[in-house]
Amino acid sequence: MFPDDVEQFLVTEGNEANNTAPVYNGRSFLYDFKKGDFIYKNGTPIEVTGLKALEVWIEKVIRTERFRFNVHKGVNYGVTIEDLIGSLLPRGYIESEMTRELTESILENPLVDDLTNWNFEVEGSLWTISFTVQTVEGAFEMEVSA
User: Fold this and answer.
1) Tens of pLDDT along 51-76?
2) How far apart are CA 7 and CA 61, in angstroms?
């Protein structure tokens, strides 16, 4: 099921001792985050490139709690915002920390220049975070609900 040469898909800068993040390689597969599964066409996952692949990569980073999964051991992948969601800390502090954490994690990608226009909405325990991603190829809007 897995390719013989997995290394071609896992590009890293430096080594694990430096705790570096995997480098985005410009390819991804469409993923339905609501259903929790890849999107298929004729039984094959749909591959995307360019800004759409970057969008998928960003949402994966946001939805991955850093240090939780062994597969990400030794790399700076994901975010640490789980403890903020649902906490009794002031909302302004939570939004500030989320902005900082998300920005640090997403800017690991060399194609992302900046993240701007942050907006946070809360309905019960559901947080919706929206922002603009400035890239070397142009800008696009992101919205992630969790």
Assistant:
1) 999 999 999 989 888 877 666 676 77
2) 20
Query: Are the CB atoms for 57 and 109 separated by under 8 Å?
Result: yes
* CATH code (residue 98): 3.10.450.40
In a domain, 44, yes or no: yes
0.85 cut: is pTM over it? no
Residue from 75, 121, 76 nearest 98 by CA: 121
One-letter identity of residue 67: F
Report whether 106 contacts 23 (CB < 8 A): no
Q: With contact defined as beta carbons under 8 Å apart, do 114 and 139 qualify?
A: no
Domain that holds residue 25: 6-145
Enter the tokens of residue 8: 């071609």
- 1 found inside a domain: no
What is the tally of structural domains in the chain? 1
Amino acid (1-letter code) at residue 73: K
DSSP-derived letter for residue 99 is: H
Q: What are the tokens at 7?
A: 């290394």
The DSSP symbol for 77 reads -
Bridge partners of 115, per DSSP, are 133
Please, which residues have CB within 8 angstroms of residue 52's CB and are 6 or more apart in sequence?
Answer: 28, 30
